[in-house]
Amino acid sequence: MKDFFYFSRWERRGILLLLVLIFAIAGGSEAYLRHRNGRATDTAGGEEGVAARQEYAAFAASLQKKEQEWIRRTSAYDRIPQPPVQLAPFDPNTADSAALRRLGLPGWMARNVVRYREKGGRFRRAEDFKKIYGLTAGQYETLRPYLRIAPEDTVRVTAQLYLPPAKADSTERPFKYPAGTVVDLNSADTTELKKIPGIGSGIARMIAGYRQRLGGFYRIEQLAEINLDYEKLRPWFSIRVDSIRRINLNRAGIDRLRRHPYINFYQAKAFVEYRWKYGELRNLKVFALHEDFTADDLERISHYVCFE
Fold first, then answer.
1. I need a labelling partner for 199 at 20 to 30 A (CA). Which of 24, 30, 52, 242 fits?
2. Reduced to 3 states, what is the DSSP secondary structure of residue 237?
3. 10 Å Cβ neighbour count for 270?
């Protein structure tokens, strides 16, 4: 056995060198595999980010394409030469399309203003004018000093927040709740609303009607949207937000969505087109960069939608 396992000095050196090469190759292979797996993980994360950006870019491009198609369908009106810009005071509730075009508005935007008025819409404040679809912040700031709204248009025709005087032959006054009484704004019917001091039949119907359109109130300040002094009414109301009726954004159509006071036609169209292209919605974050939505819009809408 001693003679069988005998190696010369050169043979021992060759065996030692061979062992060193074997360990070097094994260690290098392990390091290479770990490095490749790490790069694959980083690439996968990067690919997800790229895919998300591509998805949003495709969605934005589809909306832009739809808008361009709509503009082309209405381009006959816009082929009328744009008159020179002549800035002058104007009332958005009475100015015709020609006057609006002289202010620098394109034909399709002027026609939208006229159609809005024809459907009963009114501009109550100067800030209402900047809600016109397509009007940029720069255009609004240019026209803002020239906006003139007639006094009769700045106030809605609503019931007054006081009790009507009792008739001379009346011996009984309507029953009113004593101070300290609190009722739920989202469940009180008109009969109960009229028992609150300062609320008559007209205001009770107005509150109930607006509550029906909204699906419920989520804060008392919303009463200001129907020109009521919510500070005077605050001590009388509590609000149960769990009773708010929500709209399923994955099922509702454009007509249903646009009937809500906080959702306009273009926002409703954006919701529906996203569903067509990408499937069901999970949240409203995808519209954070959309030109038709502000942060305030999304915050208000979030109280009235669900994704079931």
1. 242
2. strand
3. 23
pTM of the model: 0.46
Residue whose pair of structure tokens reads 């993980």 in the numeric block: 41
Residues 230, 207: contact at Cβ < 8 Å? no
Cβ within 8 Å of residue 82, ≥6 positions away: 101, 106, 107
pLDDT in tens, 36-94: 766 655 555 566 667 767 777 777 777 677 667 666 655 554 555 667 887 888 888 88
Is the dihedral angle over the CA atoms 153, 159, 162, 164 positive or is it negative? Answer: positive
Q: What is the CATH number of domain 81-153?
A: 1.10.150.320
d(CA 37, CA 237): 61
Domain boundaries, the chain: 9-73, 81-153, 183-243, 247-306
- Whole-number Å distance between alpha carbons of 21 and 32: 16
d(CA 266, CA 293): 9
